[in-house]
Amino acid sequence: MPFLGVSGMQYSGASLAGSRILLVEDSNLFTSMISAKLKELLDIDVESCRNFDELQLAYDKSSEPIKLAISNMNLPGAEKGEALTYLLDLSIPTIAFTGTFLEGTRDELIAKDVVDYILKDNVFAVDMLAESICRFLTNHRHHVLIVDDSATARALLSSRLKRYNFRVSVAESGAKALELLKSNPDIGLMVTDYNMPDMDGFDLTRRIRATTGSHELRIIGVSSSNNRLLSARFLKAGGNDFILRPFIDEEFYCRVNQNLDTLSQIQLARRVTESA
């Protein structure tokens, strides 16, 4: 099932058909467009609900788990976002698909821990939604390692990445990170803090790069420091990216996606070259 997203995401793995996807949308136009696009690109048949009552009925009538929901924020009988709240209260991963984006809406959505939000304000909205769905359904292929001596920071990053359906491991030190990388060769991305007591992010990256190239492992450095030269030092140590705290959720997820997309493209190119 080859798929090329609008941001450059490529997927050619197993079919995604069979995943139960719920579309909660009252617009006939968008319901038709989304259903057709997901069938065409991902071979997914969505289950549509036009109002809050139909949503509740869809949940109650079947014991089959809902893999992902796409929900409009304003529905007949649920004009204040009740459908979105209902889905999230049931711990159903949900993408908000909305034409309403007033001041504070973005913060409200992030606080609710939605998987993503897509605005209906451009011609690529449905394509962007399809890519967001494909990413969520395939992110479990990616194993991400978080390295930070702060338990709070580890928990925050871990919860963010798990929300996006990644497999996550955590390490409280550079030494533990090296152990996990050795025992988990499928880890494709490491997000590491700069300032750690046993070895800083620079030393950890240098040690990894002595044996492991960017075609096997992407490394993103993070720091709360105001020293903007840290990014240059980290990149020179072998890192692939650098982000200053505090993060903006959308930027963090974008950087993670870009690095994993690059890794996938490099590995695909190497396989093609080796088989030629």
TrEMBL record:
Domain Response regulatory: from-to ranges: 20-135, 143-260
GO biological process, one term: phosphorelay signal transduction system
Gene3D superfamilies (UniProt xref): 3.40.50.2300
Pfam families: Response_reg (PF00072)
4-aspartylphosphate: modified positions: D193
Keywords of the record: Phosphoprotein, Transcription, Transcription regulation
Keyword Protein transport: no
Official protein name in the record: PleD family two-component response regulator
Organism: Rhizobium lusitanum
